[in-house]
Amino acid sequence: MGGKIATLAAARARDGDARFAGLTAVALLAASPPAPEPMEEDRRKLMLDWFADGAIDADEAAQFVDDNTAARLPEPLRERAIADVRCSGRKAWTGWLERGSREDWQEAAGQIAVPALILAGGEDGDLGEDAQRRLNLPHYPAGRISVIEGAAHLLPYEQPDAVAQAIADHVSAAFARALPPAMIALLASDRVSSRTRAVLTARHAVPGPLTLLSDRQAATLAALIEAVLPGAGDPGELARRIDAMMAAGRGDGWRCAELPADAMCWPAALDTLDAMGGGFADADPAARERCLRSLAAGKAAETGGALSPHQMQLWFAEARGEIARQWMALPATMARIGYDGFAIGGDGVRKQGYVRAAADTIEPWQQLAGTRA
């Protein structure tokens, strides 16, 4: 039950729901999917019968625990698990089995770009690794499956240390790229519309795999980004964002007439740059600098590549602008430089805008700690 609810909550974060602004990671444990949960009808009926008289008894709760663990739990842990099952309310238990588990929320869930850890018990029958790959993982392009051996469905009871370590590792990596708390608070405020919040959430999401550039071209682009914007973050991630932009045909609406369309130009330019630099991605910073300075001056050597030195000069000017544009559009960059211009009008009819417009003045809402440089 919890897995389906968690995924739908993550989908609300993606769609701009202020209550979930700043969602950084998802961890699913033997999770029910947005689709109807796989379950044998005889077992469904048996579990419904346990609450026929209003409450589940100790023997029935023990059967549930034993049926959902790879091996009998040691005492007193087993007794604690049985007691937890007996705390279940009749309405919640029967509501899930009769309705919630059968509901199909796949369309509402869609795809969610937040990093997701999906844990599956190695001996879980209905919701093991295969079911998680088929039913939950497709909703999380940045998700991964981890199998907990020696466990079935009640993972925290069966393998608590392994589960805790897996979650800790996942959260640690995800939170390394989390937005600052003050930026999240501003995103969640009524000064930001749901649509704007959804757009910024999508921009902050982990970019998908390469779709247009080759691995070598992407490595060359990452090296170029590192030279143009040193210390600006993960150049490989920014390279994948530019790859996605080109693959989708979403540019800035302008290109030089002497250059081919972006989807053709960038791969060709990166190949040419790689040849000019004698392996640009592998060159040291000084060699990259010399190569780019000659490129910018229109003095690069002819390589016989798809683009001439003059075209490469034009492309490099455009590439610098695109790299900067992509970086500046990221919420993490906005937080870093203290930009809050997106927070000037929420979903209401009245848009708050600015009250103070004089130079060197800021308004109280702009003074959230950490949102300004």
UniProtKB/TrEMBL annotation:
<dbReference type="InterPro" id="IPR027056">
    <property type="entry name" value="Gluconate_2DH_su3"/>
</dbReference>
<dbReference type="InterPro" id="IPR029058">
    <property type="entry name" value="AB_hydrolase_fold"/>
</dbReference>
<protein>
    <submittedName>
        <fullName>Uncharacterized protein</fullName>
    </submittedName>
</protein>
<dbReference type="Pfam" id="PF13618">
    <property type="entry name" value="Gluconate_2-dh3"/>
</dbReference>
